[in-house]
Amino acid sequence: MSAPAQADCLFCRIAAGALPAHKLFEDEHVLAFLDLHPIRPGHALVIPKAHHVWFEDLPEPLATRVTTCAQQIARAMKRLYGVERVSMFYTGIHVPHAHAHVVPMHHIHDVTSVAYLDAGPESFTPPPQPAPEALRASADALRTEMGAETGASGGR
Ligand SMILES: [Zn+2]
Question: What's the number of CA atoms in the CB half-sphere (13 Å) around residue 57?
Answer without folding.
Answer: 15
